[in-house]
Amino acid sequence: MGQEFVQLSLTPMLIGILAAVACALPGNFLLLRRQALIGDAISHVVLPGIVVAFLFTGTVSAWPMMIGASLAAIFAVVLIEAIKRVGRVDAGAAMGVVFTAMFADGVLLLELSDTSSVHLDVEHALYGNLESLIWLAADGWGSLADWTALSEMPPQVGRLALVLALVSGFLFAFWKELTISTFDEGFALSLGIRARLIGFLLVVTTAVAAVAAFDAVGSIIVIAMFICPPASARLMTNGLGHQVAWSTLFAGASAILGYVLAGYAPLWLGAENSVSAAGMIATVSGFILGFACVLGPKRKRIGAAREV
Amino acid sequence: MKNVVRNRFEIVSEAGQLTRGEPDTSKALAIEGLTVAYGEKAAVFSLDADFAAGRMSAIVGPNGAGKSTLLKAALAIVPALSGTVRFFGLSIDQARGRVAYVPQRASVDWDFPARVVDVVMMGLYRTLGWFRFAGANERSRAMTCLQRVGMEDFAERQIGQLSGGQQQRVFLARALAQDADLYLLDEPLAGVDAATERTVMEVLKGLKSEGRAVVCVHHDLATVPAYFDDVLLINVRRIAAGPVGVVFTEANLQKAYGGRLAGTVAAPLPVGGH
Amino acid sequence: MENFLSALFLQSGYNSALVAIGAALLGIAAGGAGTFIFLRKRALVSDAAAHATLPGICLAFMTMVALGGDGRSLAGLMAGSAISAAAALVLVDWIVRETRLPEDAAIGAVLSVFFGFGIVLMTVVQNMTAGRQAGLESFLLGSTAGMLFNEAVTIAIAGAAAGAVLFLLYRPMTLVAFDPEFAATTGIPVRATDLATMGLVLVVTVIGLKVVGLVLIVAMLIIPAVAARFWTERVDRVVLIASLMGGVSGYLGAALSAAHPQVPTGAVIVLVAFSLFVVSLLLAPARGVVASVFRHLRFQRRVHLRQGLLALARDEPIFDRLTLKVLRGEGYIRGDGVATLQGRATEANALRDEARWEVAREMHLEGSLSGRFDGLNAIEDVFTPDEIRELDRQLGGRIAVVS
Q: How far is CA C7 from the centre of its chain?
């Protein structure tokens, strides 16, 4: 577990953990607000976002792509809301219309644009390439204190750490408002809480987390991180604070186990190459959810559900 | 469509400030010309109503008559097409700290991960600032409110495990925590057991005796004379309003409910006086 | 343009014609099937089913190769995809029934986990056939280039089967989509019908994999249905219009793609469908935006006119700008706010009508809640002259209405 680990496994694992937790945190509230699928919608629209950014800037560097993806996510959310209100369409259908059309748009732009100079790979955008985010400049655990080596670390680590801090900050700052407006929106409004603004900010936070994470694990897998760890946590406890803590634990565990299994399990089974780490992380989070569904202490419904 | 349109009693000065001729601070809640429409159907049409402090007022009317909508529009939870609403002479944004709202129980998902005491502490939201979380001080205040409604033993219980009556008491405790001057309750006695009904009415009467204003959308005509001082009869429009003894007559009820009256009340009502 | 027209008339070559017809059939089936899940407010279940096909495709491939076959037989892959998608739907149902998780969470969880597992299997396949194009990635976005005849036939048969099911079960599915409780009382097995609907969606999804890919088949199931909804309030018409829009999108999209080979078929088909959606959203007379805004403005005008006239009649001052504007526009007041002769006459009428409406509302209490008696319609439009005379007679017994 020495130099090779730090060079090849440390950063992918770290990135995986940071991405998973950054998504799981807002996912807790999305789950309680019946907005779990907004993660699905956002994940699909990052593709047109990065394609447009690429067309504008001509490069595949990170910041333009992240900005493009964020703008696409916000555009999608606004459009979905508009269609819901103006067209009197239910949330799921509105999301379905917008994100599929935007995704098709992204595919079209991608194929039509001249990508001969740079390779923009749709499959990569869909499921990422976590295994490639290695830290060759390191030569052991000591490199963590070595500034030169640290500057050669994959930038996703710093980026995701920042996003995680932002997401945590948002949740901390608006914990009361989020809780009250999720539980009882009418009451929240009567207290003067800007419930709709809070809801919008939650979705923006979700978009930021999705965009940052998709770079590492691709867009589709991000949905798993938004939903599975919080859903598993929901089945473990009746307290909101505990639920958030459990979801963090499950997210981290999915990332670590998923990465390890993807890298080493094929070798243990006699095969030569590893399998997709992102896919395995999603699969592991699914298994955790499965166990929670069958064994979770608070898995059964108790109260009457809200009448739509 | 979004903003409440000020109507005839407002005088708009050049600076765009809204000033009233004489703001009437004696009325806890004053509504004028309120119209709320969903699509092209008016849920509330051109409604005028006053509610005074130190009185228990009921809002009654048939289903679909716009009673809940009236409360929500007054609180600016839903947008109004026209009309003015004043709380103690102030606008809703200025008066929020003095108004407590208890919505219908059915509007909430009771499977939410919260304990009884957590819900009551939500009522203390306005007393906490940024980055302040509810602490021991808030907890003890919440417990006091729970004691007033007889639910202190349930403080740690999960809200989904409560019966309808218990849930209603928790909602009431939350409102008490707000320490407001005006309490707006939407069907607080619907679907609750007799003990809860007694407790709720005791608490509300206590608020009234403290000089606060209590306004309830009430579902049960038979108990209006016993519980309330004033009543507003509405059916999209205002049918009649005033002291129960004067206004709660068979004629007015006929106007509001029509042929459905027979099914709603068991015994003939006293005409005038109670 | 020439290319497009010849593609439109199936003159662009064998493959293009095949794809165009196949896409049209797919569009019709998807539009129809999608309407039912949309009306039941379960549109995104199709997203779960579509993404869940991936592990099935890979497993089918691996099985066929293990049994000595080529692995790329479309029928085999479709069978595999159907099995895993069906398993996903069963799982969603189980999660909703057995745990406290809401349906959207169940859908999202199943969708992403199955897809994630599918990606894992896909990398296994890629490692297996290193050097050989397994081509399973083509199911992500569809690939109609080089479609084989027997593949087209498979699609056509499956499409026809879907169409047949749709035709046979049309009535029960429509009734359940419109009002499941009522349908249950008429003896229709609601649960079985729902299962049949999901089965239909499954078949359409599986067929669509080849043409538009799994990500975009969801678009074909949802977009035409939502677009059709703007045109009518009747369920049977929504199904018809959705099927029509789906078919048109498929056909036009395929033709466009044939005319410009670098354009991916699936994406174009979806974007044609989306254009139809935008047109419907804006311009449909029944529920479109333009029509709604127009109706709302008209309604607002009527409300303010009414309140204005009544205020005039009762000699109350009016400060609301819109009310004043409306009254001036109708010629009922002068610039300084004083009523004109015409205004005086109309306000008296308004007051009289208001009294009549009050009597009418007492006499016809059921009607008063229908919203037509709120005084915003002309009383002559709602009651006959005889009925109005009766109202006046009732009024005569009361205090005269004069301000």
A: 29
